[in-house]
Each structure stands twice: as structure tokens, then as C-alpha cells.
Amino acid sequence: MRQGGGVDPVDAHFTGAVAALGDGAGHDLPPGLPAQRLLDLFDVQAGSRHLDLAARELRARGEGFYTIGSAGHEGNAAVAAALRPTDPALLHYRSGAFYLERARQVPEVDGRRVDGLRDVLLGLVAAADDPISGGRHKVFGRHELAVVPQTSTIASHLPRALGVAFAIGRARKLGLTTAWPEDAVAVCSFGDASANHSTATGAINAAIQVAYRGLPLPLLLVCEDNGLGISVPTPDGWIAHAYGSRPGLDYLTADGSDPAEALAVARTAADRARRLRRPVFLHLRTVRLMAHAGTDLETAYRRPADIAADLARDPLLGTARLLVASGTCTPAQVLARYEAAREQVARRAREAVTAPRLASAAEVVAPLRRETPDEVERTAARTAAATVRDGEPLTLAQAINGALRGVLAAHPGALVFGEDVAVKGGVYGVTRGLRRAAGPTRVFDTLLDEQTILGLALGAGLSGLLPIPEIQYLAYLHNAEDQIRGEAATLQFFSDGRYRNPLVVRVAGYGYQKGFGGHFHNDNAVGVLRDVPGLVIASPARPDDAAAMLRTCVAAAETDGAVCVFLEPIALYHTRDLHDDGDEGWLAPDGGGHVPLGRARTHGDGTDLTIVTWANGLRMSLRVAARLAADGIGARVVDLRWLAPLPVADVLREARATGRVLVVDETRRTGGVSEGVLAALVDAGYEGRIARVAAVDSVIPLGDAARLVLVSEDDIASAARKLVASGP
Fold first, then answer.
1. Of 450, 487, 666, 675, which residue is the catalytic one?
2. Which residue, of 320, 433, 489, 691, is most buried by count of CB atoms within 10 Å of its CB?
3. 3-state secondary structure 610-661
4. Is the pTM here over 0.70, yes or no?
């Protein structure tokens, strides 16, 4: 193979070093490593090496699109060999040999041969036949191999791996089955640089705490330490120093260049995690060969002596030496197997470049949201039937509480968890009594870490449970939003719908909370959610809508694998009145049923003005509409209810009914929801008059100063009168 016009130095070094080996002395192979097992490991490692070489040639010809390889990490084949093919695996991008070994363990699915080499090559060329992503990205994954596709480069998949391990034990306690066997081990691999990321340290800390509490957590953490983060060296001994003596974390280390040692230690690590049901940290010492990626000039930041030292520790060379020393193969036979792997890869690469590609935007986005509205309605109806209702008018908090009770009763796999949700019943009492009703196994408190909360949810959903985590305040979501953006919302996309993580994240948010808080308890920033493809964002204001919409989200999660964020306006949790003190106009009974995704609700039938809003804006706008009516101005108020997908057709219909639209946006003027509403109206051809009022582009301050930046009823009334007075 060629690189930059010459023979690839890694390829050349390996073939030269093997050719120089003397005849073997027939030394015994280590116990537990028969000759055939060693040959299989070598074939897998050689296949992975040639995939890396082929990736660079494909890229040089403009036929491939990914060159971050596994060269130097081929020792991770031993980790796969130590596990079962039913153990869920969440792998980082240098796991080529692991994937090929797992494919070797499952040679056939439904009468068809599993070809790991072909799988990877189809991913490299972005072919639509790629068995996991369908041409959307190059990831290691296959549903039949229990390999979950990950795109993480900064360990953002560790919280999900924690969640998978947790779900295995929790489902067993609940008497439920998951996608994995009861005695499965979740394995997660990552690099030494990623081990320093807050996501990794948080996930590992959470794993230790879960185990400390005596809860089962069969998690095998594999840190593949090559000593580099692209060009930044990891200090010698750092991983051992950081993780080698953590109480509650079993630490083992192995040389990834020595197949016998790597396999023996990996077997011990897997056995401990499986038998003891607790987290194990396997520190696999590796090297990085062929630079970080095809565009990376390694000699610009590494000394020749360091590169040469890594070549001497080539894991393929380590396996070759053992094959020769044991008399299993001669050097010529080793090279013959190596060249046979080269030809296998080359042949499959020639086939891969002719495979079909995704041909339309519709094909690309197809997995983002599977929609079966009739099935969602049936599932929501089943949940509604389990909700105890007596027609009593409810507050928003009471309606959500009742709907959650119904969900827990109707869905045995539903879990409600978060900070303070169980014993206390939530900061605002929204989950009060749920723990007593459903039990502490299904309603429980977590440690105070939003990444862990969401990671638990992602792993539980992936495993077949129905997680409903709570993020205590919207402002707390921002430190963990990548778990939604980069992990939850991309899983179906990067697995072509073969994997999913159904999820309903309840988030208390928005402004207008009086006497408490400032920014962290009055946050109106939702822009980070609105641009996440495929994400469902529900934002109810009224109690009856809240119960119905929560059931819809749960049903969409269960039937379609939807990822839903349920934004709850804190200021309306316990509101009872609408216009006057004591009128109890904001109370409403839970009438059952559901609200279809993307459908708005209109209040009133005024013909002078259409006010479009949601959440706190709905109550303010209804109050303003009454004031306008006293002045002879008839307004109808449209409650969006869904911020994604936006109810464009409903809004357009109501806008055309009056010819004047005022959008009342309690989020910020820049990046707020009103931008999307106005753009949707324009795109749909609306030709009437448009105006908006929105919160100031500011963080919400403490105390009465908050009123200076939030939308007020006077702001709404003034803008409405101005719009009506401006003519047709």
C-alpha cells in the first residue's frame, strides 16, 4: 500500500521485522491460548491493519471519507475475545480489531454471513448498504453483534454505557427483560486523552458511587492508552495514577502489544465485571501507529525516536513473534496470512466503491423520526385508561403528577428519576407520592449530575426500558445538553433506526418565578434544543394539555423511539386563577386522551388579531385578550403547545383568519421561538401583517429586575393595539 507516494512505513516495518525473525524454538503457548485462538487473533488484527491502509488509499483516490484508524490498538481484539457476543459494546473509533473479532464470533445471521471487513469498508465509502449507519457516517456497529454505534471523540458515550450497565441490573430486579441477557456485561472503550474529559470522569465517578451503594453495575471500562491526544502527549503513568487506586473501581492493566497478556487480563476483567456485577477498569497500554488520521503529519510534533519505539511495539508484530516462537507458524507463513488479509480487504474495497450511496435528502433524514400517529394514539389511550380521574379541576403540577402515575401503572418498564424526585417529591411537589405508588426501584433519586441523569436514561432506553428523567431546572440542562444533542438524538440517525433510545426528559423552566432564584431558576434559553434534528419539544401551559401531551410523549417514545423534551413552566405549576383572584380559571380536569404531535390549540374566535404563544405567554395573552375585548378588539390566542415540530398548518390557518399575527415570545429575541414561527409563516406564503414581542437578549437577573427583561402583559397589549391600528 502507498502513503504520500511511498511505501507505508508501518506496513514496511512489519513485513521487514517478520521476515527477519528466526525459526521458532517451539516454546509452549501460554495456558488458555491454543494455537488456533492465536491464529484467529492474528487474522483479525491483520484485517484491521489492512482496513486502515485501505482507508488511506481510498481517501487518496477520493473514494473514501474516513481515515482515523485502529493501527497500534489491535490488541483490543483480545477484549472482544474475552467477552460474549451478546455483551453490549459501546466502542470508540480505534476499535477495528474488536469489531472484527466480534463479527468472527457471530459468523452468520439469519442465514447470511457476517463479514466484518465488508461492514467497515462500506462505512468508509459512505455506502447505503453499510449495515449500521446506512451511509450516514463511519461507525463501528451492528445490531446483530450488540455493538452500539458511537460517534464520540470525547467520551460522551460513557454516561450511556453507565446507563446500559445500570439497566441490566435494574430490569432484572423488576423482573423485566431487556435487549441484553441478565448476566451481560456492558463494555465501553475510550482513549487516554478522553479519560480526562469531564464527561468521562463524571461517568466513572457515578459508576463507583452506584457500586458503593451496593447496586449491580456490570460495566467494563477499557481505556486504550496510546499516550497521545492527537498531538498532545499524556504524561507517562497518568492513567494508572488517576484510576489505579480508586476505591470501588477494580483496576487491571495489560500490554496491548502482547496478545497473551492482553487476553489473560481481559478475561479476568470481564469475569470480575460479570461475576461481581461491579465496574472494572481495564487499562490497555497501546501505541498509535500511522498518525491520528490521514491528514495528520505526525513528524511535525513527534520525535523520530518515539515513532520508532512505537513501531517496535506494534501489536501485530507481538502476535507474529509469539506465533513464530511457539512454532505455530514460520515467518513466511505469518507473512502469507498477512498478505492474504491484504487481498481480502482489497477485494472487498473494490466491491464497496461500487455500492449505492444515499441519493436524496429524504433518504438521509429518514431515521430521525419514525412516526406512527395511529399507534401513538392507541398507546396513549392505554396509558390514559390507567390514570385515575374523577373530573376534579387540577393545577398544572397535579395534572403532570396524575399523568405520571398513569404512565407508571400502564408501563412496567417506566422509570422516573432525577434530583430530589423520589423522597421529597420534587422541588415543587410535581412527583410527590410517586415513589410510594410505584416503589423505590422505579422512582428514585440520583446523584447531582445532569450528565449522569441523562446517561442513565439513554442506557435504559437503549436497553428496552422507558426512562422519564427530570432535569431540575432548564439552566441545569446546559452543562449536559450534548447527551441529548450528540447522543440521544443521533442514535437512530447513525444506526439507520436499528437502535433507539426512547426518552421523555422533563425539564422545569422558563421565567416569571417570583421570590426565588435569578438566572438558574428562571431560564428562558431553549435555542439549544430547537435546532436538534428529530427532537420532540413539548411545552404545555394548561393542566389538561399537560396530562394529554405527556401521554403523547410517552407513547411516541415507546412506539417510535422518540426523544422528547417536556418543558414545564415553573410559574404555572400551582397557578389557579386566570383573570381574577379566586376565579380558578386556570384549573382544568384531566380529560384523558392525548394531543397529536405538532398540533396547536386555539382559544377564542376573534377576527381582529391572532396572538401566537405558549407556556407563560398563553396565560398572559389570554388576560390581554380580555382587556382588548373590553376595547372592542377581538383576538384569538393560539397555544403552540409543541415547539418541535412546530404546528405550522394550525398557526397559518389561524393567522389567515384575522390577517394580523402577534407572536408573544417569552424566550429571547435572538434565537427565540418567535424566529421560527415568523420564518415558518413566511415560508408558507402568509401575506398578512406580523409583529412580535420577545424577551430581551439577557440572562434573567434576580428579584424585580427580572421584569425589566421579560415580556409583560403591558408589552403584549401595546403591541396588539399597534398592530390592529396599523390597518389591514
1. 450
2. 320
3. EEEECCHHHHHHHHHHHHHHHCCCCEEEEECCEEECCCHHHHHHHHHHHCEE
4. yes
